[in-house]
Amino acid sequence: MRFSSGVPGFDELVEGGLLSDRLYVVSGPPGSGKTTFCSQFITQGAKEGDSCLYVTMHETKSELLQDMSGFEFGFDRAMQSDNVQFLNLMTESGKRTITQFGTDGGLTNRLVAFIESNDIDRAVIDSTMLLQHFFSDMAEEITGFLSALKQTDATILLISEMTDPSSYSDEHYLAHGVIFFHNFLDSGGMTRGIQVIKMRGTAIDTDIHDLTFSDRGLQVRPDQLVEA
Ligand SMILES: Nc1ncnc2c1ncn2[C@@H]1O[C@H](COP(=O)(O)OP(=O)(O)OP(=O)(O)O)[C@@H](O)[C@H]1O
Ligand SMILES: [Mg+2]
Question: Which ligand is nearest to the CA of 37?
Fold first, then answer.
C-alpha cells in the first residue's frame, strides 16, 4: 500500500506515493520546507482517517499551528481532530505521556510502544536533533532508534538536519527512503528544490524538482527540473 504525501506533485516522483510501514529520512538546510512537507503528510493522513502522530521538541503546538497558519491545506483542522496526536518531548506533559510507555528508560522503546499501542499509521519526528537530549552516545544509539522504528507498522518521516551537506550519515543508509530538500541562492533569489535520493521498492525520479510555496502549502512541479 502507498500513502499519498499530501504534497501536490510529489507522489508522481515515487510511483504514486510512499510505501506504507516504512521509514523515510527527510533532510535539508534550514528553512527548506521539511516541517511544512511533514505537516502536509500528517494532514493528508488525518483526512484519510489514519491515526497520526507528530513528535517534536523544537516547537509548541501553538507555534507549529502558527507557522502553518499561512497555508490553507487544513493543518488546523487536522490537529484538532481525534486522528492526530501531538507530542512535544520538551514539555512536562509530553514527557509524562511518553514515560507511561515502558519503564526501561530509553526513548526508543517508549516511542515504539507508543506507536504500537496507539496503532499509529503515520508519524513525523521533528527532528533527529532532539535525540541528543535523550542519547548519551548519539552515533551508537541512533542506529538502534532507526532499526526499532523501521520495525513498527507506522509510516514514518524522520527529519534529519544535515550538519555537513556534502556527506551522508547513518540515517540515510538505514532508512528505507531519503528525501532531500535544496535551497539554491542565485541572482534571482532563492530557488527551492526537492529530490528523492533513494526509496527501496520503488522506481524513483532522482532529479531535483522545482518546489514552491503557495497558499496551499508546498507543491512540486514534476516536469520542472532545477539545476544543482
Ligand atoms: N508562502 C511562502 N513563500 C515563501 N517562503 C515561505 C512561505 N511560507 C513559508 N515560507 C518560508 O519557508 C520556511 C519554513 O519552512 P519549514 O519550516 O518547512 O522549513 P524547515 O526545513 O523545517 O526549517 P528548519 O530547518 O528551520 O526547521 C521559512 O523560511 C518561511 O519563511
Ligand atoms: Mg523545521
Answer: 1
Q: For ligand 1, what atom is nearest to the CA of residue 58? A: 27
Ligand 1, residue 28: give the atom nearest the CA: 21
All domains in the chain, ordered by first residue: 2-225 (3.40.50.300)
Q: How far is ligand 2, taken at its centre, from the CA of residue 38, in Å?
A: 9
Atom of ligand 1 nearest to the CA of 39: 18
First-to-last C-alpha distance (Å) of the chain: 32
Indicate the pTM of the whole model.
0.97
- Helix ranges, the chain (H): 34-47, 61-67, 75-80, 92-99, 107-117, 138-150, 170-174
pLDDT in tens, 178-226: 999 999 888 878 899 999 999 999 999 999 999 999 999 999 999 999 9
Taking CA atoms only, the protein residue closest to ligand 1 atom 6 is: 213
Rg, C-alpha atoms of the chain: 17
Contact by Cβ (8 Å): 88, 57: yes
Q: What is the pLDDT of residues 101-158, one digit of tens each?
A: 876 768 999 999 999 999 999 999 999 998 988 999 988 899 999 999 999 999 999 9
Report which of 139, 133, 86, 90 is spatially closest to residue 114, judged by C-alpha positions.
86
